[in-house]
# Entry
Amino acid sequence: MFVRAIEKDTLLLLLEMGKSSHPYEYMVMLGAENGIINTVYPIAGSEASEDAVTILMDMIPLGMNLVGTAHSHPEGPFLPSNADLATFSESGSTHIIVGQPFDENAWQAYDRSGQPKQLDIV
Ligand SMILES: [Zn+2]
# Structure
């Protein structure tokens, strides 16, 4: 699925989760309809480990509307780490990182190769 946008409420939820889980990192999976991210799937039982996400994505048929991941960087900038790049390449087309100060500008979407990706907010 080509992902071109995120619903504003979903983006605000991702930012709020970053704030509320601070100082810990959170990680969720993202679902989309018609190219618009509109669903957040908590990862049951995970300790926000990026390995856990990769394993989970392997187990879930991608016929579902999963399109990627979102996670927080509690302290750092919202640039993908090497571990993030490995996760991105294995788990969908669109990945969002939120960071300090968790306001509406404190996020970036990336594609599978870790390049910044433009998402409209709808
Ligand atoms: Zn990260």
The mean pLDDT is 86. The first helix runs from residue 8 to 21.
